[in-house]
Structure formats: structure tokens, C-alpha cells
Amino acid sequence: MLTDTASVGVLVVDDHAVVRRGVTAYLDVLDDVTVVGEAGDGREALDRLEALAVLGSPLPRVVLMDLMMPVMDGVEATAEIARRHPEVKVVILTSFGEIERVNAALENGAAGYLLKDAGPAEVAEAIRAAVRDEVFLDAAVARRLAQQMRAPQSGLAVLTVREREVLALVAEGRSNREIAAELVISERTARTHVSNLLGKLGLRSRTQAVLLAIKEGLVKPAG
């Protein structure tokens, strides 16, 4: 259970009402998570966020986002949320056959992903990880994505020793605060190292960094 907040607001986005209801049902039993709304496509999700912003109401801290939806799919919606509301984390709900779209969503700022057949405990942990600025990856999808990922031509050789240490900790799912504590540096310095290594490797998110670390053998996907 989270300790830094009373409740995490979550917006559930999926074009199938039965999926939304199912996710909402098992999130409703969690003391530290509150479903603040549902949306049937990416456009509706953006409209809900914009309406809250205009009213000055708190935005949900996490959006659980389907990928295959009409009007606006999850890839485009993720990019727009990252651009307009960077404080809102997007966790992708995906099926195993949507690997290419998962890649696109990660490039557009998704914080993690899990399969639609995940159990309540996994969904809850993905939400909590996103709030902690950590990465939650379904292990089976992570392996497939890591195999397909194109590593930079110079590999990890472009990184300093400290940046490699930071990358390994990022790949273990550590937040900037936890990296700072582990390496006895400030949180700001940890954040700078993460930003620098992402830039050197041509990556846009911590999630992509985890996949590269898996591909390069620094860590193994859980499960």
C-alpha cells in the first residue's frame, strides 16, 4: 500500500464496457486506489482530463489505457497526455498480439504495461509502481520487446561507469529516490544521470531503458 498519499486517482480507458467494469470492480476494493472515471476511447479520456484541468480539480495520477480503440487509439492518446499533462502516468493495458503498438506507446511516454488477463494484484502493483516513478512490465511482453529492440550502434559503451550503475538500478525498477539512496548521491544527481543515459542511448523513457538493459543482459525480466 502506498504511504505517500491517501488514495491514487485512476482513469480507466477501454472501448469495451465489460473490461472497464471489470477493472473498476477490483480496483474499488483497494483502500489506496480510487477510480475517478472511465472513458471509451482516447479522445474521451483527453476530454475528461481537460475538463478537470479547466475546473482546477485534481487530475488522476494514473491512466490505465487500452491500445486498440476507435476515434483515438491508445498510442496517440498516450502521446497527448504526456505532452499536455506530464504529471499523469499512463500504464498500457495490452494483449500479447499488440507488440508493435506497445513499442509506439512506450516511445510516446507510457510508464509501463500489463496484459489484459493480468490479475487484480498485478494491476494494483502497476498503478503503485507508476506513482512511485518506477516501471512495471509484463515479463512475457518484456522479453518479446527486448528481442525486437534495436540497440544503439555503440551499445552501452557510451555510458560512464556510474551511468551503467544507474541503468542497472533503473532496470530493477528503482525510483530516482531509491537510486540516490543506493548510490549515496542526491535525488537531483540521480535524476540527471537517468536523463543523461537516456540521451546517450537515444531513448525516450525509463521503460525503454529497462528493455535495453534486458536486451544487453544487465538484468533479466521478472517471471
TrEMBL record:
Domain Response regulatory: 9-131
Residue numbers carrying 4-aspartylphosphate: 66
Keyword hit for Ribonucleoprotein: no
Alphabetically ordered keywords of this record: DNA-binding, Phosphoprotein
Ranges of residues in domain HTH luxR-type: 152-217
Organism: Nocardioides eburneus
Stated name of the protein: Response regulator
Domain of life where this protein originates: Bacteria
Gene3D superfamilies noted in UniProt: 3.40.50.2300
